[in-house]
Write a structure and sequence with these properties.
Layout: H1 8-11, E1 12-15, E2 25-32, H2 36-47, E3 52-55, H3 63-67, E4 72-73, H4 78-82, H5 89-99, H6 106-125, E5 132-133, E6 147-149, H7 155-166, E7 172-175, E8 180-186, E9 192-199, E10 202-214, H8 223-229, H9 247-254, E11 259-260, E12 263-272, E13 277-278, H10 282-285, E14 289-291, H11 305-313, E15 319-325, H12 326-332, H13 336-343, E16 348-350, H14 353-359, H15 364-379, E17 399-411, E18 414-415, E19 422-424, E20 430-436, E21 448-449, H16 457-479
Parallel strand pairs: 1-8, 2-3, 2-10, 3-7, 10-20, 12-21
Antiparallel strand pairs: 4-6, 5-6, 8-9, 9-10, 11-18, 12-13, 12-17, 14-15, 15-17, 16-17, 19-20
The protein binds flavin-adenine dinucleotide.
């Protein structure tokens, strides 16, 4: 896809003199996208006293954030202190940079890690959104317990709570069914003036704002952009929100922004199939394992759920069987997604591994051998041939089995930004009045592929940068008088 020359008018409406335009709506801050990033930005901006106009393409807010498990990483929070966890933002940044092999801007990574505890405390104290530290298991790659989530581990509930908080401010106006179609910019300077928005499917409205925040996530739902930037995922099962079609990145590019790490993404290797519900990685971290249809384990499944998607997709039919026991089952019962798997009949229960093999049409003999070898490794009686070191003891019957597949969750490449979330050109200069966060901005997951994604990098970029963008955009807008 070449956005240059021919398509630029589809993306940007250039005007010579803003005062000559007949604007339909005016606000201090225009936010495009009503997922986690946009809602947090709206709250942060309005807390500063700015009038916010938020436009959401779909009939309801939420985006990918509502599909998520609401897991938010933060270091140095009061929740950690209460639980006796000694963590630091430096350590959190090191964990992110280790996982992404130093593939994200280290200054920005450290900044976001440093802002993470402020975000979590602010959500709790200022916005009344109840979070807790997830203490029952640790995601691989995090060297401390630092994931904060709501009780249900459900993004839709987080979105509801954010929406409820917006209700407390009378200067946040939200329009649903209101896709932004083009950015409006001044021809001479390239300064952003607002956007052209189609509200309720009727005509084009021109919204003027002193500052505009792009909070419309990445391009997971745009097959053409996937073919260009992440060809290995162009035909993959996309498990994210259909609204994420990448126009924020195209607008930025058309305005001269630098694009970074466009090949990076988050995937997942534990989506219940064909039910299309997230089983969660917790069944693995509590001690389970994956086999293919030959009844063989094929990789150390503990190495990370994002890269594990490619391992699963490489197996026959692109599927695996997730095997776990009663202890794992009980431990993940609190996840709404897991409950949904139960309701949909995705989870099958067995007294013996042979029965599991029969139901999933896997060689009983091979399955028994695999299970026995896994049990020995889990007991520490022999080294795991696939190099797994993290077990939780052997599995005890009853056993459970779920057919799973790999899927693309969201893209991680995007517009380069500075510490104030302002969008940057290739020469490092700022595009005036333009901010970005969440999946529209470049993430913290390395240069390319799924392996650089450390658990919860997605909401880290969405919520932390949403707050930074909202605050900075509001301050700058109000300073203009
Ligand atoms: C199943 C699943 C589970 C996940 N779990 C976690 C987790 O627990 N922790 C974690 O850190 N990450 C998780 N992620 C990733 C995380 O959900 C995303 O990284 C994050 O929600 C992105 O937030 P966002 O605000 O940038 O985008 P979104 O939440 O997707 O919001 C973008 C919004 O912009 C709207 N939009 C798009 N184009 C336009 C337009 N032209 N005009 C107006 N509006 C527009 C969209 O409709 C959408 O509502 C998960 C992802 C999935 C799919």
């Amino acid at each position: 896809m070449n956005i240059h020359s021919a398509r630029i008018d589809d993306l940007i409406l250039f005007v010579d003199n803003p005062e000559d335009v007949s604007w339909d709506v005016e606000a201090d801050v225009l936010i495009i996208g009503g997922g986690g990033c946009g809602l947090v930005a709206a709250l942060a901006a309005s807390e500063k006293g700015a009038h916010v106009f938020l436009v959401e393409k779909e009939k309801a807010a939420g985006g990918n954030t509502s599909l998520s498990q609401a897991m938010v990483p933060a270091a140095g929070t009061s929740f950690q202190k209460d639980a006796g966890i000694d963590d630091s933002t430096e350590l959190m940044a090191e964990d992110i940079l280790k996982k992404n092999k130093k593939g994200s801007d280290s200054e920005l990574t450290r900044h976001v890690a440093a802002e993470s505890s402020r975000l979590v405390e602010w959500l709790d104290t200022n916005m009344g959104i109840r979070l807790e530290l997830v203490t029952d298991f640790i995601y691989p790659g995090h060297s401390r317990l630092r994931i904060h989530a709501n009780k249900t581990r459900k993004g839709a509930h987080l979105v509801n709570d954010l929406l409820q908080a917006t209700g407390r401010y009378d200067h946040i106006d939200v329009a649903y069914n209101a896709p932004a179609k083009r950015i409006v910019a001044e021809r001479k300077t390239g300064a952003v003036l607002g956007a052209e928005v189609e509200i309720g499917g009727v005509g084009r409205n021109l919204a003027r704002a002193r500052k505009t925040i792009l909070a419309l996530n990445g391009f997971g739902a745009n097959r053409k952009m996937l073919a260009r930037y992440i060809p290995e995922m162009k035909d993959a099962y996309y498990f994210g929100h259909e609204g994420n079609t990448g126009e924020g990145i195209l607008w930025g590019e058309a305005l001269g922004a630098e694009l970074e790490n466009m090949g990076a993404y988050q995937a997942h290797g534990s989506v219940a199939h064909p039910h299309g519900t997230l089983l969660t990685f917790a069944t693995i971290s509590f001690g389970g394992y994956h086999v293919n249809l030959q009844g063989k384990r094929f990789v150390n499944e503990y190495h990370g759920y994002s890269e594990h998607a490619l391992d699963v997709l490489a197996q026959e039919q692109g599927v695996a069987i997730s095997v776990f026991d009663e202890r794992c089952y009980q431990a993940v019962l609190g996840f709404e997604d897991f409950q949904q798997c139960i309701r949909m009949g995705a989870i099958k229960k067995f007294d013996h591994i042979r029965d599991l093999a029969k139901v999933f049409r896997v060689s009983e003999e091979e399955m028994e051998k695999t299970h026995e070898a896994f049990q020995k490794a889990a007991l520490g009686e022999s080294a795991d041939p696939l190099g797994r070191k993290d077990f939780n003891g052997p599995l005890k019957p009853p056993l459970y089995g779920v057919k799973v597949t790999g899927a693309l969750f969201h893209t991680q490449g995007g517009l380069k930004i500075n510490k104030d979330a302002q969008v940057l050109r290739k020469d490092g200069s700022v595009i005036a009045n333009l901010y970005a966060g969440g999946g529209t901005a470049v993430g913290f997951s390395g240069k390319a592929g799924p392996a650089g994604y450390l658990s919860a990098n997605g909401l880290l970029a969405a919520l932390v940068l949403g707050k930074v963008a909202g605050e900075k955009a509001a301050e700058a807008a109000l300073a203009q008088g």
